[in-house]
Amino acid sequence: EVQLAESGGGLVQAGGSLRLSCTTSGGSLADYAIGWARQVPGKEREGVSCISTSDGNTYYADFVKGRFTISSDNAKNTVYLQMNSLKPEDTAVYYCNVNVFYWGQGTQVTVSS
Question: Which residue of 16, 68, 79, 108 pairs with 12 in a disulfide if CB–CB is 3.0 to 4.6 A?
C-alpha cells in the first residue's frame, strides 16, 4: 500500500515562499499522477496542481498559475510544490495524493497579511 508523508508547511508572510514535499513509500512513483489539493474549514477540498511521473506533464489550477511549481524526483520518491508570492487566501491544509486515491495527512500552510 502506498503511503505519503507531507512536510514543509508553516507560517509565512504574504509575498513569501514555502516548499512542500511529499515522499511516498510502499511503491515506486513511476507511472503515477501525484497531486496537491488544499482545504479550508467549511469548504470542499480543491485541486491545486499535479504532475505525471511518467512524462512530466503538469497541471495547475488558475489561482496558482505563475506562482506555484510542481516537480518530482522519482529517484527519491518525492514530489515538491514550490509556492511563491503566497497570499493570505492560500492559507489551507495542503494534501498530497497519488492518483487521487492515496492521501497524506496534510500539512498546514498559513499566510499572514
Answer: 16
* Residues making up the chain, counted from first to last: 113
The candidate with the shortest Cα–Cα distance to 63, out of 40, 31, 79, is: 40
Cβ(68)–Cβ(81) below 8 Å: yes
SS3 87: coil
Cell 489539493 belongs to residue: 37
Please give the pLDDT value at position 21: 97
Answer whether 100's CB lies under 8 Å from 5's CB. Answer: no
For the stretch 19-71, pLDDT in tens is 999 998 886 666 789 999 999 999 999 999 999 988 889 999 999 999 999 99
Q: How many other C-beta atoms can be found within 10 angstroms of the C-beta atom of residue 59?
A: 14
DSSP symbol at 99: T
The single-letter DSSP state of residue 40 is -
pLDDT above 90: residue 75: no
